[in-house]
Amino acid sequence: MIKDRLSGNEAVALAMKSMNMDVMAAFPITPSTEIPQYFSQFVADGATETIFVPVESEHSAMSACIGAQAAGARSCTATSSCGLALMNEVLSVASSLRLPITMCCVTRALTGPINIHNDHSDAMGVRDCGWIQLYAENAQEAYDNYIMAVRIAEDPKALLPVMVCQDGFITSHAVENIILLAEDEIRKFAGFYEPENYLFNSREKVAYGPYDSPVYFMEHKRQQAQAMIDSLEVINAVSQSFGDLTGRYYDLLEAYRAEDADRLLVVLGSTAGTAKQVVDELRKAGEKVGLIKIRAFRPFPVQALVQALGNAKIVAVLDKSEGMSANGGPLFADVCAALGGRGPRLVNYIYGLGGRDVRPLHIKEVFEHLKDDIEGKTPAAKTAANYRYLAVRE
Amino acid sequence: MKHKNVEINEKIGWRDISVAGHITGGGTSKEFHTGDWRNLRPVLVLEKCKQCLLCAPVCPDSSIAVTRGKRQEFDYDHCKGCGICARVCPFDAIYMEKEVVSDD
User: Fold this and answer.
1) Rounded to an integer, what distance in angstroms lies between the CA atom of residue A207 and that of residue B23?
2) Best mutation site among B14, B15, B37 for testing chain A: the one with the most A CBs within 10 Å?
3) Closest approach of A221 to chain B, Cα-based (Å)
4) Smallest Cα–Cα separation from B8: which of A95, A201, A219, A92?
5) Which of B3, B8, B12, B18 should we substitute to test contact with A (largest number of A Cβ atoms within 10 Å)?
6) CATH for the stretch A2-246
7) Cα gap A366→A368, rounded to integer Å
8) What is the pLDDT of residues A273-317, one digit of tens each?
9) Fold designation for A253-389
10) Can you give the pTM of this predicted structure?
11) Runs of H (alpha helix) within B47-94
């Protein structure tokens, strides 16, 4: 066990180095810039054999990863916000080619208005691109998720690219205590990448990405959808063996003091840390509150969520991005779809956009609203609907 | 087309089709019959043809094969009916007619 203190970016760069990636192709963008920066330092120091490709854009970064991975190399990248948006076209190419590329998405608001701070609009903007998305609460989880991501992606039942999301600045730049694995342990855990088909295989020719006419396209999409369904099991299996190695066990979601709670929150990412403190405080005062932290957003853990929300009277889903659907945020939409109209009442809060601070008092405010909702007290006009805003000036 | 000895054709289901459409082996475009995209069909009038061979190199789909100095019949499995051959023929030995498709 190695104890250290690292930022989320440093921890992910270290995880990438420890796994001895074949190729890293990246273009700097705040707040993910430090990942390729640390990584290129490792390369310059001769601390890794990875080929670092300093590309001219994020579109090129993902394209280089696709080319490298199709050739048979284990490749990775990191990006944020507009960089992820620029990759959008090729993200779907990576997933439909079933290339197990891994990427760290350091979440940041999509412009505009122009803003460099954290929310989830970048990652949510690519949620339908066929990538597995794991969200980390802190630097330790970003590091752990990244190590697991490589095994999840390369599992023959999944064969899908994985995006490891951590919150920009909040997680990526804050230095925390962290427990690291030894390099040889990580390499043993990740194993050797040996794809069934790859372009550099001199013994067998293979065509990657041939034109798919209407008579084949849907079969391939159905097959890809099945891989996403099957990856639920893969994530669980890889997380189990990671837990056996480190003692840190992860599920598709984390239910925190949720069992007998009548009021629950559903969140992604670093907000979970803040919310846990509030839950503890309110629990001490005898209030039955709890928290569900979604770790795997894609694939969406329907069964686990339905089970976890089962006994609550009301659930607030917190969305750190505005889906502009006039019907709530993207996480809310998925939670609603998972429950299909059964179970507890669901309300939605849009919060923390563009780096708006999320403090314990805001989380407390949500729990208070939920109490009013349960008790049938007349809520303030602004919170009468199920689609609400948190900490916005009226 | 084949992928690792599995025949990929229009009857194959999603469980059996090759992952991501991978195809092993080379030269498989020959097996992809693009001829059914055609709505105009080139017809060769052999009596008028002087075997000048101007048509063969302009075909974008290599659908006019030349053997021992003589052009052969059109490869209707791959000809998309663009009509360039009929345009370049100085002897009116190629004309285009409407493709008739049966409803089977």
Assistant:
1) 5
2) B14
3) 8
4) A219
5) B18
6) 3.40.50.970
7) 5
8) 999 999 999 999 999 999 999 999 999 999 999 999 988 999 999
9) Rossmann fold (3.40.50)
10) 0.92
11) 55-58, 84-88
